[in-house]
């Protein structure tokens, strides 16, 4: 008889969700974690980054208070206090992800590294554990590029950035994706010089260019310098001199230009944590993007094994590095692994993503370019500027745009939003896309006034305006006006 019904490798967001559900169903569960409970999200990702951004936004609000008639002195950044806020945020959330909490659920938590020794067994802390089912949720880590000179200079990733005891004098960020942009704005607003180097033609390459322009402009106002379409040829050590008290790093671009800074942050992407798992011994197929699974998240080569979270590479969909994906994966896994429901398939059609800048950039479903590339015909592109929203006007935040991509018969295919707290609107769009609700459901939604969400409703209303104000409708109203 196997030692455990379910063995979960990785105690990040996905692994914790699976372990909790498994234990709640009365199964014998082992949860193995070689690092910190809570994984990347709690300790190095979502929680500390959003806590740092909150401090940065507070500093920006103090600087901008004059536009409301409030006169404040320039904010003084207490880096130790900022760090205390970041670490305090982690500490307040940590009990929810703690080993003690999961042991209280009946889960055996083993804080050590694990690797497969057979298709139905792992070795951990000198023990061999057999299982009926295993779930690999080992997550992902920052990619360290093969860059000449990198081995001779100090560099940071999201796992070490929040350990800095002093603020960077000039932070050079390689990569203009969500992590790079969020940390660029956070550090710029906290008084650091920041340069973002993006090898591709533009930052936020996956997002709608029309919305990205507004985000770029906001970061430039905060002092962030961008070098787009710029490839780094090598990096060099910068020694301290009379002008620079700190040692640092120089990024030498392919065009020969040199950018000197005190710190270098690598934010060029993420890769699955496959090393050390010995997947070959487990008979588990994997590639550079992660563990290959079917749409039910089950391994294509070992029917006892499932993969969830960043490390999963579902055929036809590919991996996605989002914490909120953990809950969706857990739901798919429960139906697939425990209840053996047929036709259990993963879909990313309504998966939201957000770059948590100020303003935020949120996207659900297809962008305009993706919809056209997919061959959707009869597209309608609806826009409503945030400047036309009364709440935005009262708060002095008129920048931004809601952009809806609508297919035939008024079906919402995608929505992009650039606005303060845009991520808060994403759920409504996701629900509409997932449940295939007509756009009329949004256009007719009664929302409290004044709220930013009204911009979405106004954009949806524009879809029906031509019909409402058509010559036929006007003739009909003209006839009906004579009725008593």
UniProtKB/TrEMBL annotation:
Superkingdom field: Bacteria
Organism of origin: Belnapia mucosa
Keyword tags: Disulfide bond, FAD, Flavoprotein, Membrane, NADP, Oxidoreductase, Redox-active center, Transmembrane, Transmembrane helix
Family under the similarity heading: Belongs to the class-I pyridine nucleotide-disulfide oxidoreductase family.
InterPro entries tied to this protein: FAD/NAD-bd_sf (IPR036188), FAD/NAD-binding_dom (IPR023753), FAD/NAD-linked_Rdtase_dimer_sf (IPR016156), Pyr_nuc-diS_OxRdtase (IPR001100), Pyr_nucl-diS_OxRdtase_dimer (IPR004099), Pyr_OxRdtase_I_AS (IPR012999)
SUPFAM superfamilies documented for this protein: FAD/NAD(P)-binding domain, FAD/NAD-linked reductases, dimerisation (C-terminal) domain
Name under which the protein is recorded: FAD-dependent oxidoreductase
PROSITE patterns from the UniProt entry: PYRIDINE_REDOX_1
